[in-house]
Amino acid sequence: MTMADIEKCLTKESSTLPLHDDSSVTLSVTAVDEPRSHPPSVADSSASCPDGGARAWLTVLGAFLALFCTFGQLNSFGSFQTWYSEHQLNGLPASTISWIGSLQLWVFFFCGGFVGRLFDAYGPRPIMIVGTLILVFGTMMTSISSQYYEYILAQGIVVGLGIGTVFYPSLSAISTHFHNYRSTALGIAMAGSGVGGVTWPIMYQVLFSRLGFAWTVRITGFITLALCGVAIATVTSNISTPTQSQPWLNTRMFRDLPYILVIIGSILICLGLFIPFFYIVDYSTAHGIHPQTAFYVLSVMNAGGILGRLAPPVLSDSLGRYNIIVPCAFLTGLSMLVFWPFATSLTAIMLFAAVYGFFSGAFNALIIPCVAQISELREIGTRVGVLYSIISFPALCGGPAAGAILKSEGGSYLGMILLGGTSVVAGSLFLLWARCMLSRRTTEPKELSRLLHVV
């Protein structure tokens, strides 16, 4: 066989390599250090993504509104945490009240695997219609609740389920419209959650005192119904033939080492990521900040998340998604460890809130494009959903664990801060490991070709 024949065979075989098979050399991922290159195995995905057009950008708009109503409200639970501790549930400790928000977060995350598979089978619209109805119903039930178990059922479970069934289809739909600029498009949509995280706490602060709790929450439900209605009308999928015949859970994904490393890293990160969102308002009041002013600290944190959801994703489309998410995740944990314990004045707390919001927002915006980068186009919804289902458990435990530490240490926040910061830093190291694995994958075929050329 001549050298030309060997090179032809190598070219032919590399184009048919399985997408996620660790036993062979694979070109299944976009190069980490060269994020715009498209290996043969993802050529079909990139070719089918228009990277623009009216339908694509209307989908981004709809997802922005959907996330404003869903993840934006979820990020604002700190406002309810403080209100409940001073009014309806003032006889309960903070760790007990935080179970409402933690359960909401867990239900939202856990339903991701099921919702993601439904998206791959039926597209976004029917799921978002059902999700909107569930979300509005749960919100209205929260407005008439008065007992702890009622808040657990309405706000913790029903609202959490509604958030998940609107959140996942809208973001997964964006991934079917974009390839080269997927992170940018997803970042714009994710900014909706940051805008919501700024707007909702301010609205709650103003309306709780003027209209009361019940009507404030009802107004939230009406706004959600209107904006999610626009989202339902504008969000579309670029996949023409849904994959209803595929199994609900393809176990092959659990043999893909980079995907597993991303899951482990996300588990550790989500254990501590939401602790500041739950407790920053209480932390502020404990350090002498007036309660009305403390509500705005959460808005500042979410405002930092807006920029974090925009700038890093735009950079990641040029510099590599894993190259950006790793330092952002690391700095999220580091800011908790070296900045938060020393933030005791209003100015310092506001500054910490902005910095933490920026880096945590970057992680939230980049994790989906990082998963999409190592997934087949028709499996994006399922893989993203499975990831969120798995990380639902540490997200559930983070808030109550922090509250238990806070109680055991007599109101000292240091132990809670150490838990959150160390877990996020540890998670960033697993993301770094995944990034190194992807870098090795993209260089192996070049080295093999060079060796055959020498022989």
From TrEMBL:
Give the transmembrane region(s).
Answer: 56-77, 97-115, 127-145, 151-171, 183-203, 215-236, 257-281, 293-312, 324-343, 349-372, 384-406, 412-434
Q: Has UniProt tagged this entry with the keyword Transmembrane?
A: yes
> Localized where?
Membrane
Q: Which InterPro entries match?
A: MFS, MFS_dom, MFS_trans_sf, Proton-linked_MCT
Provide the Major facilitator superfamily (MFS) profile domain boundaries: 55-438
Q: Which Pfam families match?
A: MFS_1
Q: Which SUPFAM superfamilies match?
A: MFS general substrate transporter
Q: Which domain of life is it from?
A: Eukaryota
**Its GO CC terms?**
membrane
Molecular function (GO) terms for this protein are: transmembrane transporter activity
Q: Does the keyword Lipid metabolism apply?
A: no
Primary localization class, coarse: membrane
Report membrane topology: Multi-pass membrane protein
Write out the entry's keywords from A to Z. Answer: Membrane, Transmembrane, Transmembrane helix
Q: Which family does it belong to?
A: Belongs to the major facilitator superfamily. Monocarboxylate porter (TC 2.A.1.13) family.
Identify this protein by name: MFS general substrate transporter
This chain's source organism reads Dichomitus squalens
